[in-house]
DNA sequence: TACGGCGGCGCG
DNA sequence: AAAGCGCGCCGCCGTA
């Protein structure tokens, strides 16, 4: 027995088992079912199910459950059940099993309930794997250990040996997962229904169950489709920059070794630390965090290198800045992306729905949400993401999404007006905060652009225009910084101004926008009062540390309290947009697939002929993704082209 | 040889 | 580093 509870016997089915037909009939007649697969491995595009299991509460006999383990050869007998849209499947980590079933030739059409996602809405600080959820939600503990077998023999050999040599153990193992899942589904559903929340649409979202079933549940399938599609990669382009990147990196590393006068591994912070602070005797700028041991050492990060260049004019530090850039580019992107390509030249990320505490997605294996931006990346990695022949990429961006949501949430009329007037928000803010004419700010940016493009003489960029540009930059940094709870010290460092100037700037900004100040204060107050920070659709984040006696712990919770409503609401908006794009049937209408989400940006692949039509629909759907209009319209800029770079 | 912690850094 | 939110991956290094 694997769980520490009494349970019905696990049943075993193969294609030849006489009871299979009756089982199929019962399953078809039971609309709520937990499902799990045992597979050949963890690669979701390549591996496939060897066994699978189901568990459900028997119709007409409440409290009586069945749990069955089936060999994969039984799957075809259930094909019509998988196709039925009017049923519900519960999983742990749903997308993975959906991929496995798809690899075996079956696409589930019913509702998808991922218990990991359900759990993440209630217990965002905990893990969402089956073992932990079963322990903490159900009080069940796992007794058998299969890890060693999987590890030493590999999943395929291990599972197939079990079928031959110890079938009961295989049946236990496999069917218990499904059994745990159906109990988790039932318990978590009750907990979600009993979890009140606060949203802008109380008639639609008043409990976490509303949030789950109306947004997260359909979202899972949307993400599954994105993962499945993958993004096509121009491997020739990556190969073409691999040489130059490597050459440049080697060159700068050789130069560093020459300057140091002995072999040094430029990737080793320890060796660099030794060189700068022992051999050269420089003063450290800052110390590292120290981690568990608490041992702090001099940092050798970007800030430090920049300071060593500034203060000591050190050529090694200067070269290290280049080395860092190139090493990151080469290892993480040029090589990393190539290594992730599948046989068709596409890369398939995992979009994690249960990781970010604010409700954002995360992307891993491969992370497609941190590909370098072309404006700072001289090797233009984004150029490597391309459509297949005769297709385009479409890239749609929410413009200033978080600022718009802040203006709405705070009901800051002057800021709202900037958006209603269709102005650039940072220029608008700079204009109001510093009393500069908006048109001058606009002209400054235009002239700056033209001077940089060589279309105008440098003398056109007057001191006044420089001041205008700087004002916009300062206000932009303040706006983002405030959202993260930044204080004057950090602002001063970022803007390279004095602490007092930074303090003055922030005060000026806040007193020009009193409603914004009040919004941040009241966000913190809400958490003090209720324990939770809320987003527009009612996602909650529990922040008990807001009452901590330790000021650093409490301050951190306060920063999170003021950030969650904005970052989390932005995540809500994009999530709704993705669901609506899916519902708009872009695939059938235009042959368009959603590929990637990068927080406020969506990427699609679309045939050339239908690109213009698809763009129009996508833009409309995204700008209109919420149940009702906000005080500020959401604006989406949309472009298309033959690479991620060109499409923006 | 594998793994986790850590520093460092890419993105929004 | 510091009162800057949310992520994931790389290489190094110490440990098993």
Structural description of this entry:
This protein is of the alpha+beta class and 648 residues long. The protein is 52% helix and 12% strand. It is built from 25 helices and 16 strands. A hairpin with a 5-residue loop joins β12 and β13 (540-542). α7 crosses α8 (167-193). The protein is globular and about 90 Å long. The structure holds a DNA duplex (12 and 16 nucleotides).
Characteristic key phrases:
648 residues; alpha+beta; six-stranded mixed sheet; four-stranded antiparallel sheet; 16 strands; DNA-binding
Count of DSSP helices? 25
**In total, how many beta strands?**
16
Regarding quaternary structure, what we see is single chain
The share of residues in extended strands comes to 5-15%
Structural class: alpha+beta
**Which sequence of strands runs across the widest sheet?**
1-4-3-2-5-6
Q: Tell me, rounded to a whole number, the average pLDDT.
A: 95
* Estimated helix fraction: 40-55%
What sort of overall outline do the alpha carbons produce when their principal axes are compared? globular
Termini separation comes to 56 Å
Strand-helix topology:
Blueprint: E1 10-13, H1 20-28, E2 32-39, E3 49-57, E4 65-71, H2 79-83, E5 88-91, H3 94-103, E6 111-114, H4 115-122, H5 130-138, H6 147-153, H7 155-165, H8 167-193, H9 208-229, E7 231-232, H10 235-260, H11 269-279, H12 302-312, H13 315-339, E8 346-347, E9 350-352, E10 362-364, E11 391-398, H14 401-410, H15 413-420, H16 425-434, H17 438-452, H18 463-483, H19 488-495, H20 499-512, H21 514-530, E12 532-534, E13 540-542, H22 551-583, H23 586-590, E14 593-597, E15 601-607, H24 611-623, E16 636-641, H25 644-647
Parallel strand pairs: 1-4, 2-5, 5-6
Antiparallel strand pairs: 2-3, 3-4, 7-8, 9-10, 11-15, 11-16, 12-13, 14-15
Helix pairs in contact: 3-9, 4-8, 4-9, 5-8, 6-7, 7-8, 8-9, 9-22, 10-13, 12-13, 14-21, 14-22, 16-18, 17-18, 19-20, 21-22, 22-24
The chain binds a DNA duplex (12 and 16 nucleotides) through helix 11, helix 13, strand 10, helix 18 and helix 19.
